[in-house]
Amino acid sequence: MSGLRGVRIAVTGASGFCGSAVVRAATEAGATVVCLGRRPGPAGEHRYWDAARTAPDLTGTDLVLHLAAAVGDPPPGHAAEDAFRAVNVDGTARLLASAGDRRVVWVSSASVYATPGPEPVREDHPLGGMTAYGRTKAAGERLALAAGAVVLRPRAVYGPGDPHLLPRLRRAVRGGRVLLPGPDIPLSLTAVANLADACLAAAAWPAGAYNIADAVAYRRDEIVGAALGVPVRHVPIGAVRAVAAAATAAARLTGREPALSRYAVEQLTTPMILDIGRARAQGWTPARTFTDFLRTGQRRSAA
Ligand SMILES: NC(=O)c1ccc[n+]([C@@H]2O[C@H](COP(=O)([O-])OP(=O)(O)OC[C@H]3O[C@@H](n4cnc5c(N)ncnc54)[C@H](OP(=O)(O)O)[C@@H]3O)[C@@H](O)[C@H]2O)c1
Question: The whole model's pTM is what?
Fold first, then answer.
């Protein structure tokens, strides 16, 4: 990516996994970065912003890349819904009001989609998030689209420093193998470097929603086995759903994220391929693959 020299970019969520990759890519491309969040990003000026409470200070910036979000899979209920809404919906409204005429690239998620069929999912697929996260991301992106933003929908982002995907899968390792609900499925994943490239490129795209994923679809068992370095064993979906129901019931009492949720089981058992033709038509090419990550990035991720 080149051509960002002299551009002043506000990045929200810059302290997080994806946001910090975006900040590094923007800095390498010559942009000046202002990081907005409760913690600083890996480079650039830090301006404190709590999306659940206040409006961000975007003074002196030309472009806004919004990655801040309440993420996770909390036990269902009003408390989680309200906490997620405060950041993902109300925080978005505050951000859009502050952005004024600036271009906004709003990072959403494929979690906003209703359960897909076997066909690749295009951007006009019905929405219907299953969780507080998916529902509030869908509501936030509606505001962003109405304000003329570019909305990116990545799926299952992986890469060095990933605190979500592989750490969760590591918890499913038992006795030298990883237990997954069978059967194997095809799925899209998004390399964090591909998402970072898309965030920087998307400022020049027409307003609207764009799926963002690697160029190839993967086989779940192959990538999980290769990433964790252990063989995959299948367990019946019904048994895993029962464990998830029990874990969710327990999590309602503790208020903590369940070790295994119904949503996680659906993610692992529902084929989901994103059609990325719309983003590709803008000239964006997802160059990185999971094989690149296994070769170069995984040791850092596991550290
Ligand atoms: N990782 C994935 O697989 C994936 C997949 C699809 C979409 N996404 C999207 O990508 C974006 C980044 O996700 P991530 O994986 O990088 O998550 P992450 O590592 O958990 O980072 C979340 C970021 O959001 C910020 N944030 C949370 N609450 C905030 C608040 N009240 N005020 C200000 N900032 C707040 C955090 O900053 P502070 O704590 O410093 O404030 C942090 O920088 C999100 O929009 C997410 O929906 C991620």
Answer: 0.95
